[in-house]
Amino acid sequence: MCDVSVKIENLERHVRDQHPRAEIDPSQLLTEGERATIKAVGPPRTTVRPSLTMRGKVIIGVAAIVILLVLAVIIVNPFRTGLRPGQEAPDFSLVASDGSPVSLLALRGQPVLLEFIDIDCPHCINEAPVLVSLYSSHSTTVHFLSLDVNFNSLPPDDTVQRIDSFKSTQNTPWPYALAEALVPTYQVSATPTMFILTANGIILQVYTGETPLGTLSSALDQALRG
Amino acid sequence: MTFGGLSRGDLLVLVTLLSIAGAADAAYLTWEWYAAQGASWCDVNSFFSCSRVRESSFASLAGVPTAMIGVIGFLAILVVSTLLLLGRVRLGPFDLDRWLGVLASIGAAIGLGLTVIEVFVIQAVCLLCAVGFALDLGILGLALAIRRISPEES
Which of A88, A187, B7, B80 is deepest in the core (most CB within 10 A)? Predict the structure, then answer.
């Protein structure tokens, strides 16, 4: 009839649409066997593009706005809690890993670098050499204290023995203590979290995550200046 | 035929929208796993803490961040929904409606598993992961609705 190549599943439609005057009944073009084969293969690979309704467009717009709002709220994060600079650091009394008593109140008179860590946290391990370097330059004028909050609740739990092992591996000479109970008091949400306290126990800066040596050093110098 | 007044096209655009949001969410979490230095801006407190979840052993599988699986899954759903929007109903021997349902089901199942692990094992919830799970559930619901509207009826 024409030289156009047409797939068998489209033959009836082609004849009906392109050759309306041909004296052929399109429904007689295919045998029962061919129809069964087409049915078994399934619908054609492409159909008309699905259309949108006005109601659908409104709902899509609302959904897009809701998703953006949710992401914005998470980014801005107005619900974040935690102690802030200017507040007094809550006091605590603990037993250090070497058995000696540790009290924040007893450290008054010198600035304090108070670190909340988990010895299994990779960022805390990465931060340890930074603090060792900082300790070498500030150990006579600043108190260093690391509190393990066992943040990673998966086994093995942090113990005094594991803390001592961490200390010897990382060569960190300052006192460490287990302080899981202080998580709500200090509202620790990530490790390491470092509080720089003035000699009067006021929070000067709070740093979360791996923090560069220069940043911590500047904060300690500021604390030393009072 | 419509579903709740929405056409097949409406539902497919919604799936596309949710899969883009899901891919972006999972891509951010993947980036954070590789690049972030400990803190996450989606930390709220010690329970709702992305950092705490990320530092757990469940955050990666053989060195590959779990969130990467989310990126791949959401992108696969995005490809399928885009093909359906372009009018394709099959890709080779595959019925795309069915594949959308299968991918959405796998995504929702993985999301459910990870959420259970977060709550009961890690004992901390990552809000961005929770958003990803919510998007998974939304896509699954839409995929089920789409299967009730055949392409010929749209």
Answer: B80
Query: Would you kindly state where each structural domain of chain B is located, as residue ranges?
Result: 8-149
Report the residue count for chain A: 226
Burial of B92 (0-12, 13-18, 19+ CB in 10 A): exposed
Q: Which amino acid is at A149?
A: V
The two structure tokens encoding residue B84: 């359906």
**Selected residue with higher pLDDT from B69 and A49:** B69
**Element spanning B29, H or E:** helix B8-35
Q: Are A202 and A175 in contact (CB under 8 A)?
A: no
How far is A66 from chain B, CA to nearest CA, in Å? 11
pLDDT tens digits, residue range A209-219?
888 999 999 99
Highest mean predicted confidence (pLDDT) among A115-119, A187-191, B59-63: A115-119
Interchain CB distance below 8 Å, B40 and A190: yes
Is A150's Cβ below 8 Å from some Cβ in B? no
> Measured between CB atoms, which of B10, B44, B90 is closest to A45?
B90
User: Which spans in A47-201 are helix H?
Assistant: 54-76, 122-138, 160-170, 182-186
Span B102-113, average pLDDT: 95
Q: Is the dihedral of CA B116, B121, B126, B127 positive or negative?
A: positive
Is A78 in CB contact (< 8 Å) with chain B? no
Q: Which of A67, A68, A75, A115 to mutate to test the interface with B (most CBs of B within 10 A)?
A: A67
CB count, 10 Å around CB of A157?
12
Mean pLDDT of all residues in B108-113? 94
